[in-house]
Amino acid sequence: MAMPIIVNVDVMMARRKMSLTELAEKVDLTLANLSILKTGKAKAIRFNTLEALCRALDCQPGDLLEYIPQTESH
Predict the structure, then answer these.
(1) Fewer CB within 10 A of the terminal residue: the chain, N end or C end?
(2) What is the largest CA-CA distance in the chain?
(3) Could you write out the three-class secondary structure of 28-62?
(4) 69 has pLDDT over 70
(5) pLDDT the model gives residue 74
(6) What's the CA gap between 64 and 53, in Å, rounded?
(7) Number of domains into which the chain is organized
(8) What is the CATH number of the domain that holds 63?
(9) Residue 20 pLDDT exceeds 90
(10) Helix, strand or coil, per DSSP, at residue 3
C-alpha cells in the first residue's frame, strides 16, 4: 500500500528551475538520497533536511509534503 504522504520536491525544483545536482549541493545530501526523496521512495525525512530543502527552495514544508488519505477497498 502506498504511503499517504506525497513528497513534491520535484514540483518545487521545477518552479525554482533547480537541478537535482544543484539542490543536492545546497542541502548537503547525496544525489542518491535526494533522488529517493524526490521519487517518493523515502520512508522518513529529518527535520533538518526538511529545513534545508525549504531554505534552498524558498518554500514552506507544506509546499513539499502533501497528505492524501487512502481509501480502503473492501
Answers:
(1) C
(2) 45
(3) CCCHHHHHHHHCCCCCCCCHHHHHHHHHHHCCCHH
(4) yes
(5) 52
(6) 9
(7) 1
(8) 1.10.260.40
(9) yes
(10) coil
